[in-house]
Give the backbone structure.
Amino acid sequence: MDSERLERYRARLLKEKYRLQLELGRIHAENKGVAGAEAETRGDQTYGDHMGDAATDLFDKERDLSLEDNVVDLLAQVDAALARIDAGTYGTCSACGQPIDELRLRAIPYTNLCLADKERAEGAS
């Protein structure tokens, strides 16, 4: 892959990394704000008579943890793609060593597998 295309992918990946970091910060801020507000309004009170409220809070916390895990995973994939650019292996499938199709890279710039190996990996899991 020529250096001009690599730099375009680097710029896209850096932009995505920044977006993901902002999203992670937003998730953390929301969780911190919610936890603080709950502690202030609830005090020593327990949910006891409000099982619906407890269930809603639990659902919200689990959803936020899931979102956070997803963002952290995507950040790791973006960082790994940036490292592959630096190492000169970007755009090469880590499983078979063949070039990853340009359309796939445009759609998922942090991918490390060609479509055939991704399909094999998903079929195995």
In short: The CA atoms of residues 31 and 74 lie 20 Å apart. Confidence is low (pLDDT under 50) at residues 36-45. The chain has one domain: 3-90.
